[in-house]
Structure formats: structure tokens, C-alpha cells
Design brief:
The complex is a heterodimer of chains A (358) and B (116). Chain A has helices at residues 4-18, 21-58, 74-83, 95-111, 130-138, 141-151, 155-186, 191-196, 203-206, 208-225, 237-240, 250-275, 288-295, 299-318, 326-354. With 358 residues, chain A is mainly α. Chain A has one domain. With 116 residues, chain B is mostly helical. Chain B is 66% helix and 0% strand. The chains are: A mainly alpha (358), B mainly alpha (116). At the A-B interface, helix 2, helix 4, helix 5, helix 7 and helix 12 of A face helix 1, helix 2 and helix 3 of B.
Amino acid sequence: MWSFSHIANEMHEWLSKTFNPTLTLIIEMVIAGVAVIGLFAGLGLVLVIMERKVSAWMQIRLGPNRVGPKGMLQSLADTVKLLVKEGLTPDGADKFLFNLAPFIAMIVAMLLMAPIAFARDFQLWDMNIGVLYVSAVSSIMVISILIAGWSSNNKYSLMGAMRSGAQIVSYELSAGLSVLAIVVLTGSLQVSDIIQSQKDGWWIFKGHIPVIIAFVTFIIAVTAETNRAPFDLAEAESELTAGFHTEYSGMKFALFFLAEYVNVFIVCAIGATLFLGGWMPFHIGNWTDFNHVMDYIPSSIWFFGKTFFLIFVIMWFRWTFPRLRIDQLLNLEWKYLLPISMINLVVVTAMAILKWHF
Amino acid sequence: MGASSLIVLIIAAVAFSGIAILISTFVLKASTNKQKGEPYECGIPTHGKTWIQLNVGYYLFALIFLIFDVELVFLYPWAVVAKSMGWVALIEIVIFFFILFMGFLYAHKKGALKWM
């Protein structure tokens, strides 16, 4: 059967027959690097046009419709526009940190690609601490935001960075606790183990109400962690112009923008992997015939379908809820989400021990 | 690919951003003047220092976060073995959460969670 792992193995065999081992490794690394860069840039283009089209659709207007068929090449045109813009550095800025911040944002977004399973046996590194790795690396993101805001020599930037810092570190807690609910049920931090444990049904269906509560908490927390509306007060356009990237222009701004959108994709991919089964097709218990029919749909379509559904939900939030004030935002986390997710974790543990899930 | 994939990813990220910035410096046509380097504050000349004192609330939340983040790190190894350990794990975590919750209530009573 046609699969990614099959192609990768064939390629590896051919390369090791033709070249010596060192050269083989280097060529494979270059191929992986180019593939990841391609995926990264492609995701950026697709998500920007998707965001604009979804917004237009929610507000009953057309959205971008001039460049290419139905405006689908709009984000490509925007990229070219950003490429020829001048990247200004303000006079009072700390030049080194100012230029370093977009690189850190990009490195973090890129590193988070490692443990994501895009399809059956198609993963860069299936590490045994996958979930811990994701939460550890994603917390570095806040450093790039604080560096960007502090070094810009602009009050809007500093204000946006401080808000963003307080918000991201707060919501990391409930995101982590809701992820732990799945780790307790699976008993493993490895991404492939978590996906395999869902082959008789996704956790959101097998885990009853506690897992649904964990899923909802997770979605709220990651919406806040990626600075998206209704939690976008880090870059509240009407009060802080653009938040931490007010002073960034040209390609450096584009890199922040790209990293932000790729982060949205990554958190949705993690959510889809933990709660909705990743690339695992829709299976019901031991209905072998039904499961067999579902297996005919390729695993990559399942993965991207679930991920883009979650991205759509997060875009939907933006046009449904008004922006929160900072005290409301911190109240929501510390007085509601954190206690709820702590109690929920205890309930999930009791459920796992009693084997009440399917 | 194993651990080497992380090196590949870091190199890919740096190369991608570096090349993009490099290309943009080559293709742009820029003129300079004095106003360009000023901080953008909606056209008004900036007033006073940029690095002003901020609300103490930000730091209080950062401190409380630190406690809970360490707690979260402790929970990861617990979560892996919780199912196989059975009831002992549940009782332990309830005690752990209880102690933590007392600290949380103390911070709440002190008004650390109130935004001024």
C-alpha cells in the first residue's frame, strides 16, 4: 500500500546504495530541512488566506477576490509586498536583541514540528517524552515576545509584551493540566503511543465528560497562548496599535506573523493528536467492518482534516467573542480554569484507575 | 530521524529567516531621513522614558506562576505511572493538590490575584 514510510524507506535504501553513509546522512538532512521549510511557508500562506476568507464568510462579505482564482493568491502577493518593504530599526532600539527576536520566534515554531505525527509512520522524531517536549519548547515563545517588546524602545511594544507575558505564562498551566488528563489515561508521553491508544475510538468519545472538559479547557488555553482573539489584548489594535511588533516592519514582521500562524497550526495539531486521535481514522470499538472502511481514507487526510477543523474553530472564536480586559482574562484563568482543570485531573485519574472509560 | 532532526530544524529556521531578511535587504530601495528612526507613537513625539514602571500585578502573577509551573513539572512523571500505580497515586495527588491549594488560597486572601 502507498505510504510515506514506504517512500522514505525506498529513498533511504537507494541513497545508501549510491553514496557513503556520511553523505547519505547529509543528503537526508537536507531533504528533511527543505521539506520542513516548504511545509512552514506553505502553512503560512494557506492559513493567512484561510483566516481572511473565514472572516469574510462570517461577516457576509467577499474577502480577497482579485489576485488569482477567487483571490487565492492574495497571500503570495502579500509576501512579495513584505519582501520589498524596508525593515526599519528604530534609533533607540537595542539593535542586537531587536534583530534576534524574530529568529527565536521562528526557531521555536520550527522546533515544535519535531514530535508531530503528520500521517501513519510519518514523524521527524518520535521521542519518548513528546508531550513534555512540546510544553517545554512552546514556553520559550514568550521569551521572544518579551525581547521584541523590550528592545523596541516603544511604550506600546513594552505594554503589549508585558500583557502577553502575563497571559501566556498563566494559560500555560491549564493547557498543561488538560494535556496531563490524556497522559494519565494513556500512561505514556510518547506521541505514537497516544495515537495507538485511540485505535478503538478517540479519547474525546472514550473518555466521557471529564475528557470533554479537558478538551474545552485545552482549546481555551491554547487560544490564549497563541495570542488570538478574544485573548488578543497583547496586540489589541485599537489601543496598542500592534502590541509587541509595533516597531517591526518588512521581513522581520513577516517572520513574526508566520511564526504566529504556524503556532496556531501546531497547537491545533497537538489538540487533534491528543483528543481526536491524530492520524487515526474514526474507529468504533471492535466493529471491524466499519473500521476497515474508514481505513481506506488516507491517514494524512484524517490528520489535516482534524487539525484544520480545530483551526476553523479558533478562527470562529475571533468573530464570536468580544476582547477581554486584562483583569477579566487573569480572573478567568486563575479563578475558573485552573481549579476546574485541577479537579478534572483528579476525576480523570479516578476514572482511569476504575477503568470507566471504554 | 532521531535527535539529529532538532539540529536540522534549528538550521532550517535560521537559514529560512536569514535568507528572507537578506533577500529583502537586497531588493529594497530605501531613502533615509531623521524621522524614520523615531519610535512610532501615532505621530506624536514620544514623551519621557520608554522603560517606565509597570503595574506590580504582572510580577505577582509571574511569581505565582513559578510555583504552579514547578508543580506541573512534578506532575508529568506522576501522570505516566498513575494508571499502573492505582489508588496510591490518586491519594498522593489529592494530598499534593490540597497543600498546593492552601498556598493558592493564601495568595488569593493576600490579594495577589486582584488586578489593581
